[in-house]
Amino acid sequence: MEIKALNVYPIKALRPVPLTSAILTPQGILHDRTYMLFKVNEDSSLRKLQLSSCPQTALFSQEIVSSAEASSDTDDGTGDTILVKYHI
Length: 88
Description:
This is Mosc domain-containing protein. The chain is mainly beta.
């Protein structure tokens, strides 16, 4: 088997973030599907945003910004930031 690409989706249903390496945790690959976007309805209920029901989610992009404090040898990802951009 050959791995052709390694991607994570920090925010579920948004565009993927390509990786060159990954940190495995008991829950899977670090940062994969950690967050989800919801819309608050008028009655205060929540509706999850997905591309199939909300095409505007295709306008979001996301990237993982590695913490500057940790060295690449010991970086466990705990100081990373998920940067989200909305492209109009």
